[in-house]
Amino acid sequence: MGMDKTGAARGRTLWQLFLSTLYISAFTFGGGFVIVTFMKRKFVDELHWIDEKEMLDLTALAQSAPGAIAVNASILVGWRVGGLAGMAVAVLGTILPPMAILTVISFFYAAFAANRYVALALRGMQAGVAAVILDVVFSLGEKVVKERSALSMALMLAAFAATFFFKVNVIYIILTAALIGVGKILYLRRGTKGDRT
């Protein structure tokens, strides 16, 4: 009986995960960072399946791994929520809407490309996308500021400057930040071992 309840609860979680990723993917325009914003609102703020710090980590991993950020983020969130089955349903929910939309567009590409109203609609969406990305920067960046860690603040500001002013490739920024993080962990462990002796 207990096993049946556990299985039913797991099935409901997987179904909700699938519907959530399907909905987010179907109504998100502007790429991976926008999808990450909506994932944060859904899985952190609304469902409380993941905390903010973990979402920041998942976003960093999704961006640094090869492939589309949206799919990478879905894989990581799905795995965190429901293991292998969660990963499968999250990816399926994420890729179905774009596949369906792009299939339809491919048949009518010439008409879409030449249509003035479609071009204007896409231009309007670009402004909306910029606002959504700015929102996620502030909401996730706020967590870093609240930690009051000098290293985290310095890394965040240096990463922004490197990207915005010096046009450094984001891969180099991520790898540098990862190396600094590993260095900090090793330094703290060495300090802890020194205290014990």
Characterization of the model:
The chain has 8 helices and no strands. It is mainly α. It folds into 2 domains: 2-147, no CATH class; 148-197. The longest helix is centred in the middle third of the chain and has 39 residues, at 69-107.
Unreliable runs, pLDDT <50, ≥5 residues? none
Give the oligomeric state of the chains in this entry, treating copies of one chain as homo and distinct chains as hetero.
Answer: single chain
The tally of domains stands at 2
Structural class of the secondary elements?
A: mainly alpha
The gross shape turns out to be: globular
The helix tally amounts to: 8
- Terminal Cα span: 53 Å
Please tell me how large the radius of gyration is: 20 Å
Q: Give, in order, the helices and strands.
A: HHHHHHHH
- Strand fraction equals under 5%
What is the mean pLDDT?
85
Tell me about the biggest sheet?
Answer: none
Number of strands: 0
Helical content band: over 70%
